[in-house]
Automatic annotation (TrEMBL):
Residues 1-27, 128-152 are annotated as: Disordered. This is Cupin domain-containing protein. It comes from Caldilineaceae bacterium SB0664_bin_27. It holds the Pfam family Cupin_2. InterPro entries: Cupin_2, RmlC-like_jellyroll, RmlC_Cupin_sf. Transmembrane segments: none annotated. Residues 53-111 form the Cupin type-2 domain.
């Protein structure tokens, strides 16, 4: 399968009231198809996840680092690489996968002297600063905020003052959403207890579903705030 060169669909944080579906009568946009033999870049960059096809050059060694919030998954597609994660070393070949948990120091080395190693990797979540440099003794480097274009995404060029206002307003909206969710959870938790005591499965499920609605809304609001933060944070040194 070859890489289909299409304009990347625009990311929009989840919204229960505005689902990511084409409007009635609209032609749906084709989804992207990537060939790992050709593509060497981030194919998706959102606060929820960053996904990348990564080509390591012969003998290449990545720097020691960790991720403050994100777990990183590595899947070898071609070649052979040595992974050091939290002090333990393993060699992985095509078809094998490993995971570096949040805050675990890790490093990757391409063991092939004359060929590249290709892997799929994902970091979840992707919140700036996404990488924390580390020394062999575990010492932490100062946080490094990179431009969004470094992750193959568009840089924000709007006024910083507008981004600051949007971030503050987003934080206030998240706080309001959290208060509403807490009230909904308290009410539905009581309904759940009563339904469980009465062995009323339908009422128990209804309470659970109502709690999920509040959880969904809260996370959707948080993702919107994260998106604004990722646009704002790299611009502090302008």
């Amino acid at each position: 399968m070859r890489w289909t060169r299409l304009r990347r669909r625009q990311y929009r944080p989840p919204d229960r009231h505005m689902p990511n579906q084409p409007s009635p009568g609209a032609q749906p946009m084709a989804f992207e198809v990537y060939d790992f033999r050709e593509v060497n870049k981030n194919v998706l960059t959102t606060p929820e996840i960053r996904a990348r096809l990564y080509h390591m050059e012969p003998g290449q060694v990545d720097r020691l680092h960790s991720h403050d919030l994100g777990h990183e998954i590595f899947l070898i597609l071609e070649g052979k690489a040595e992974f050091m994660i939290a002090g333990h070393t393993e060699v992985l070949e095509a078809g094998q996968l490993c995971v570096a948990l949040a805050d675990e120091i890790h490093q990757v080395r391409n063991l092939l002297p004359d060929r590249r190693t290709v892997m799929f990797l994902s970091v979840t979540p992707h919140i700036q600063p996404t990488h924390t440099g580390r020394d062999p003794d575990g010492s932490v480097h100062p946080p490094q905020f990179r431009s969004n274009s470094f992750y193959d995404d568009e840089d924000d060029t709007g006024p910083i003052a507008d981004l600051l206002d949007a971030f503050v307003h987003g934080a206030e909206a998240l706080a309001d959403e959290a208060r509403q969710a807490a009230a909904a959870h308290a009410q539905q938790a009581e309904s759940w207890r009563k339904a469980q005591a009465a062995d009323d499965k339908d009422a128990t499920v209804a309470a659970r579903n109502a709690m999920w609605k509040a959880v969904h809304s809260l996370h959707a609001r948080l993702f919107k705030l994260d998106l604004t933060w990722n646009r704002l944070a790299p611009r502090a040194d302008e």
